[in-house]
Write a structure and sequence with these properties.
- The strands form two sheets. The protein has a four-stranded antiparallel β-sheet, with helices on one face. A two-stranded antiparallel sheet has the order 3-5.
- The protein contains one helix and six strands; from the N terminus they run E-E-E-H-E-E-E.
- It has one domain (2-82).
- It has 104 residues and is mostly beta strands.
- The chain is 11% helix and 33% strand.
- A hairpin with a 4-residue loop joins strand 1 (2-8) and strand 2.
- The protein starts with a strand and ends in a 22-residue tail after the last strand.
C-alpha cells in the first residue's frame, strides 16, 4: 500500500492518494480503506505546512478496495485554508495642541 500527498496551492487543496495492490488470488490479503481509516493515515503521516490549516474532506465517500481493479487507487481531496497574518494595530498619532493667544 502506497500513500502520496500533493498540495495544490492554486486550488487550495490537499490530494491524498492511496494505492493498494490488486488482489489476484483469494490467498492474498483483502484491503479495504474507508474515510475513517484514510483520515487516521492522514493524521499519522501528513504534517501540514505552517501557513496552511487542513480543512474538511471534499470526497468522504471514496474508498479503496483491492478486489476491484478500478478501486485500487483512490484520491481523497481536502480543502486547505491559508492562515491570514494577524492584523497590525496602527499607533494613534499624537498631536500637540497649539496654544493660541488672543490679543485685544
Amino acid at each position: 500500500m502506497n500513500t502520496e500527498f500533493v498540495i495544490d496551492r492554486e486550488n487550495n487543496q490537499l490530494l491524498m492518494t492511496i494505492t493498494a495492490e490488486f488482489r489476484h488470488r483469494m490467498s492474498n490479503d483483502h484491503v479495504r480503506i474507508g474515510f475513517s481509516a484514510a483520515n487516521r493515515i492522514l493524521k499519522e503521516q501528513f504534517e501540514c505546512p505552517e501557513d496552511l490549516i487542513l480543512g474538511e474532506c471534499l470526497t468522504p465517500t471514496a474508498s479503496v478496495d483491492n478486489e476491484y481493479l478500478n478501486r485500487c487507487c483512490v484520491t481523497w481531496t481536502f480543502s486547505l485554508i491559508s492562515k491570514s497574518p494577524a492584523p497590525v494595530a496602527k499607533k494613534a498619532r499624537t498631536r500637540s495642541k497649539k496654544s493660541t493667544t488672543r490679543v485685544k
